[in-house]
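Database export, one record per block. Field names are fixed; values are copied verbatim from the stored entry.
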Amino acid sequence: MVDLDHVISGSFAVSSDNHDVEFVGGIQFKFGASKAVKQVETSGDWFIAWGLYTQAAVFVFPHRKSELESYGVQILSLFAATTLNNHSYIISLDKAIRVRVGEHCDLLLTNNAKFEDLRLYWLNPIGAGVLQTDSKAKPKGKSDFRCEDPCDRWNR
């Protein structure tokens, strides 16, 4: 699975942070784990990163062109059908789908029936991903009132 955060980060990089360089024949390989400096946070970020990834993937795997294009259209239609405030759930769904496809050599990004559980998890209002994210985003109201008296703690 390709991390689109790294794809979009690479498109904005001003210098290389690779540490180790090896030559095999006439080919140079650069190694080193880097942190993504930019995150895919909006539909626009996703669209840019997906376009760059698709170009590279189709160059290496031309037979996957229609699959990648079809998947891109599906995700973009999800962005179009939801409010901006909920685009983070679609980005999470996309990551989850691509992880699953990356772990199974018999899946394609267009095998929609294989991802229904992920859609429920990330896009359904009762899905665990939505509930989990909402609970992190809105902490239960902590009051600034810090009295140690048992009655006041009970009332609080």
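Remark 1: The longest helix spans residues 43-60.
Remark 2: The mean pLDDT is 82.
End of record.
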